[in-house]
Amino acid sequence: MTQEIAARKIIYEEIDESKVTANQKWMWTLAAAGIGLNGYDLFIMSLALPLIQAYFVSFSPAMAGFFAGATLLGAIPGALISGQLSDRYGRRLILLFDIALLTVTSILCAIAWSSFSLIFFRFLQGVAIGAEYPISASLIAEVMPRRNRGKWMTGAFSFQALGMMTAAAAATLILFFVRGDGAWRWMMFSCAIPSAIVAISRRRIQESPRFLARKGRLKEATRVLGWLLGEEAVVSFHRKLTLIQREEKEPKQGSFRDLFLPKYRTRTILTAVPWFLMDIGLYGIGLFTPMILLYLFHGESAYTSGFLAADFRSDVAASIADLFLVIGFFLNILMVESRGRIQLQILGFIGMAIGTGMVAIFGKDARGGLIFGFSLFNLMVNLGPNATTYLLPVEVFPTQLRGTGHGFAAACGKMGAVIGVFLLPLSAHSIGLSSTLILVGILCLIGSIVTLVCRVETRGLPLE
Prior knowledge:
By secondary structure, the protein is mainly alpha-helical. It has one domain: Growth Hormone, Chain: A (Up-down Bundle), CATH 1.20.1250.20. The chain has 20 helices and no strands. α2 packs antiparallel against α3, α4 packs antiparallel against α5 and α19 runs antiparallel to α20. The longest helix has about 35 residues. It is globular, with a radius of gyration of 22 Å. The protein starts with a helix and ends in an 11-residue tail after the last helix. About 5% of the residues have low confidence.
């Protein structure tokens, strides 16, 4: 084994077997904060959507899809491109760029002068949101220890639910103090403040030592290793380096085409297809939950009289259901290392199908049953696939392909999200809301089958 390859393996081992330090927690927090901002930004749009509908008079089901789906469309190239760029140029640089872009586009959305300008700015904002998925996931996986990496990954992704809850609270507060349908501008602007704080804080973030070692930048990698784990890790690194004498072939730089080679094809299907199917339901239902509840609670009359009061009540009901997003993540953190990723993903998909079926069955007849169905859906999506589809790509792909693999899977997810957001209003209008929800449930069941067939359990295994 060459000294460079030996040094790389030792750096990987030191991180895998480490005890969590304050600087590891700092890196984790700054990466997780971006996921929280993604949840905040995406959910604030669902709460602002009825207000935007009232503000821009000409509004159709197709236009509702464009408003909600512009961000998700932007997330597709954002995830694809940032994943590959992070494998080439590093995690830190792309993290800094994407949070700056999120801050700027939040301000632009708040001052949008027309429906088309708002759609365009939301698309740009989506680029930043999509970029966050593969980079933050790769960085967290590469700096946290092996034995409880799943808990740290799910813990970071649970910031998405915290962001959604914060968005619900912020929107409710804005509606309380700002009268009139122009309150949506304050909702759009509200994301700029926390994202600017994260942008400033991320200037202190360090590059992944795994990435640096993979690129042959061993001096930088050992420096960051010492910063991350303490100087005793550097001493251990130099001691182990003198003991390794085996020969090993140097792995080549990964490329997008490698995802479809026989070696990785099953892993690509496992990470991309369930994420695609899950996001159809998660975003197709999640982004429109307040509007669905507004319609089911009040019917067409909600748009003709007492609109703000009705919107406020539907936002409160949606907030109650969203509490179960946090509970779902909490349960995943408790179970992800004991039950494994695959079992939770399958269970979560089945629970999502049951939740959508309950909403379809109850319809307008029982408000309590509707909220319970939405709550079950939210609980099971975060207990299972919303957390595990974020976690699996960084564990099944090696370092040289990690960002690219996660970026492709995330982009497939956002393609599913776009389909859900664009087609749900049209489908509900043409075949009815209940039939549309049953269709989403069927897709969730297909996701559980694909997971079972292509399963690759990564629990407790070291990163390649």
